[in-house]
Structures are given as structure tokens and as C-alpha cells.
Amino acid sequence: MTLKDIIIKSAGILGLENLDFNSPSEPLSKLIDSAKMIVSELTLEHLPLKTKEVVSIRGGRGLYEELSRPVRQILKVKSGSKSYSAEMYPNCYILPIDVSGEMEVSYLYYIVDVGVDDELTLPPQVPAYVLATGVVSEYYYRTGMVDEALFYKTRYDYSIENLSRSLKSVYLPRRGFIW
Q: In what order do the strands lie in the sheet with 92-94?
């Protein structure tokens, strides 16, 4: 899914079907800004982005610049069957033990600023329509239509809450009827 997909669905909800992506306009720029804000808010507050990478650690110290994405939080560093926690500093992360070698680093990361046609790296359970309701809410806030904004914000919040909730299987034993 791209930012453009979300904006097209948002424009459909708003009744802006003739939105032209080739010529700049105020509604288009508000929709783009709203979409970027909603995607950023989603990944920061509700569904954080997580990844793993194998990097070289020297002297118990790893550099953020060796990781491919902007680091938000180091979750754990693993070498074989041993796991280490890491302390985060401005330029690096330090392991409690002075270890070196290739290690797997699990971390949360920030989404980078995306263009309209760029593919978004979002959790697979989030459909474009849910994000579009959030974008519509933000668009209405920016245009001063507070009642409409609150309506769509409520829909968006409930949808995100349901999507981010951990759905666990529940086993219900089968019981016979007693007459």
C-alpha cells in the first residue's frame, strides 16, 4: 500500500473524486500532510515497527549507523543462544558484557519520510480504509470542521484499537446438556 492509495480512499470519503496528483492544490497538500501524520502516529503510538538485522559488534558496542533503519529502541541483541540487553546512548548502544562478533539485533524503528508513491512498511493487519478514516479526521481538523473530525476520529480510534488488540485463541470445552 502506498500513501497515494490511502489519499485516494480519503478523497473518496470526502467527496473529492477529481483530485489531481499532478497539479498542486490546497486540498491535496492537506491530505498528504494528514496522511503522513496519521501513518507516523500509528507507528509511534499503536503499532510499532520491529525488525531484526545481523551486524558486527566490537568491544560490546554497536553503532546505530550500521543498522538499515532509524532506531527507536534496541530490544535485544542475540548471539547464538545468548541474549543481551543493551543500553542506548546518542551514537551507539552498549552491551553489559564486552562481547564482539556477528550478532542479531532486534529493534523498533521509525518510519522514514515517505513520498506519495512510496510503498509503506506497515503491519499487514492495517487496511488502507482504516488509515483513510484517520486521514479524513485530521483533514477535517485542519479545515476547522470539528464535529466531522470527531466523528471520523472515533471511528479511526475504535478500528485501531481493535486491530492492535492481541487476539488470543480461546478453548471452550464441549459439554453435554443435562436434562
A: 61-63, 92-94, 87-88
Task: Compute how many other C-beta atoms are within 10 angstroms of the C-beta atom of residue 95.
Answer: 20
Give the cell for residue 82: 545468548
Indicate the angle between helix axes 3-14 and 128-143, nearest 10 degrees.
60
Q: Cβ contacts of residue 169 below 8 Å, gap of 6+? A: none
Longest distance between any two alpha carbons in the chain, whole Å: 73
Per-residue pLDDT tens digits for 48-57: 899 999 999 9
Question: Could you give the count of Cα atoms lying within 13 Å of 2 in the half-sphere of its Cβ?
Answer: 8
What does DSSP assign to residue 112?
A: P
Query: The cell 542506548 sits on which residue?
Result: 88
- Per-residue model confidence as pLDDT tens digits over 164-174: 776 554 555 55
